[in-house]
């Protein structure tokens, strides 16, 4: 039996559908999925099996023009994930086409493209006419020599199996990197924090302060098989604390219930989730916060 294994980096602009594709490939929710940009901070790895091949996905932060330390660290993590991978998949939104951001990414691919296969996945194909798709694929392939091009809908699953099979065939021969039943190498504490942050994002929409993070402060296993999880939501201003709490605490209560329900489904057991909101004006300049998110604080330097 010949086994294959390797790392696959999904790169693209924010909202290109990388997290949705990762979750569909893995068959479980391991990456935060929202309609706001810049939601994926850490390099989340999801593990999928395809025949005798083990596909380890690196879901990188969306590539965009960085302005703050956190932005710079996220962009550095994205390119670092791509440079470390065996195969890179560039995801482009069909209806947005070749934006300035996509052009910047294509320039970056020239630097990391040596020695690894780079595929193109045009996502959200249901949003455009077939003729437009063919023109876009032709344009992108004229700009960069992709190993293969796929037309997909990560949300609906169209074309995803073809992409998964191709990736499995292209990975290097070698032993599996993780146990067969493992779907992510993130600590459960971080996955739980990501789930809560997603619920905050979905609940607050435009009000949500980007300068907010969630940390799992403690995780206690109980004798009855349940778990007690304590999390802190850090915001930079008192005004943001009020937004997260909501009138009479209704927002944080709803967020806690939704996050707990998803965590219980994920773990298949009872969870007691307790959330606190704390004002920490300078958390964006604290190296420990970056470590919690799997980012390198030094990468945020100008």
From TrEMBL:
Q: Is Nucleotide-binding among this UniProt entry's keywords? A: yes
Residues involved in GTP binding: 12-19, 59-63, 123-126
Q: How does it assemble?
A: Monomer.
Region G1, annotated ranges:
12-19
Tell me which PANTHER family the record gives. GTPASE ERA (PTHR42698), GTPASE ERA, MITOCHONDRIAL (PTHR42698:SF1)
The organism of origin for this protein? Ruegeria spongiae
Q: Where is this region: G4?
A: 123-126
Segments of this protein annotated with the region G5: 152-154
Q: What is this protein called?
A: GTPase Era
* Region named G2: 38-42
Q: Which domain of life is it from?
A: Bacteria
Q: Quote the Pfam families the UniProt record gives.
A: KH_2 (PF07650), MMR_HSR1 (PF01926)
All residue ranges annotated as the Era-type G domain in the record = 4-173
UniProt cross-references to NCBIfam families, sorted A to Z: era (TIGR00436), PRK00089.1 (NF000908), small_GTP (TIGR00231)
Q: Where is the chain membrane-spanning?
A: none
Question: What's its job?
Answer: An essential GTPase that binds both GDP and GTP, with rapid nucleotide exchange. Plays a role in 16S rRNA processing and 30S ribosomal subunit biogenesis and possibly also in cell cycle regulation and energy metabolism.
Q: Where is the signal peptide?
A: none
Q: How does it sit in the membrane?
A: Peripheral membrane protein
């Amino acid at each position: 039996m010949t086994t294959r294994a390797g790392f696959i980096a999904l790169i693209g602009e924010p909202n290109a559908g990388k997290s949705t594709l990762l979750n569909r490939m893995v068959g479980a929710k391991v990456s935060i999925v929202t309609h706001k940009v810049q939601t994926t901070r850490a390099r989340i790895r999801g593990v999928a099996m395809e025949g005798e091949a083990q596909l380890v996905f690196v879901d990188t932060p969306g590539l965009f023009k960085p302005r703050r330390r956190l932005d710079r660290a996220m962009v550095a993590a994205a390119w670092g994930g791509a440079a470390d991978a065996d195969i890179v998949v560039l995801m482009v939104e069909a209806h947005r086409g070749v934006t300035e951001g996509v052009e910047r990414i294509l320039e970056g691919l020239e630097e990391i493209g040596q020695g690894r296969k780079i595929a193109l996945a045009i996502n959200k194909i249901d949003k455009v006419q077939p003729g437009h798709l063919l023109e876009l694929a032709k344009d992108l392939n004229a700009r960069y020599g992709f190993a293969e091009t796929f037309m997909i809908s990560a949300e609906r699953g169209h074309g995803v199996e073809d992409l998964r099979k191709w990736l499995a065939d292209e990975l290097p021969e070698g032993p599996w990197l993780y146990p067969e039943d493992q779907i992510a190498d993130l600590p459960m504490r971080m996955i739980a924090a990501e789930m809560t942050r997603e619920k905050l994002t979905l609940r607050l929409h435009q009000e949500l302060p980007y300068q907010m993070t969630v940390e799992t402060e403690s995780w206690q296993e109980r004798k009855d098989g349940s778990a007690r999880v304590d999390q802190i939501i850090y915001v930079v201003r008192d005004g943001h604390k009020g937004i997260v709490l909501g009138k009479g605490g209704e927002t944080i209560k709803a967020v806690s219930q939704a996050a707990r329900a998803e965590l219980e489904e994920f773990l298949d057991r009872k969870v007691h989730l307790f959330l606190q909101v704390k004002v920490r004006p300078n958390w964006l300049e604290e190296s420990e916060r970056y470590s919690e998110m799997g980012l390198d604080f030094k990468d945020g330097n100008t």
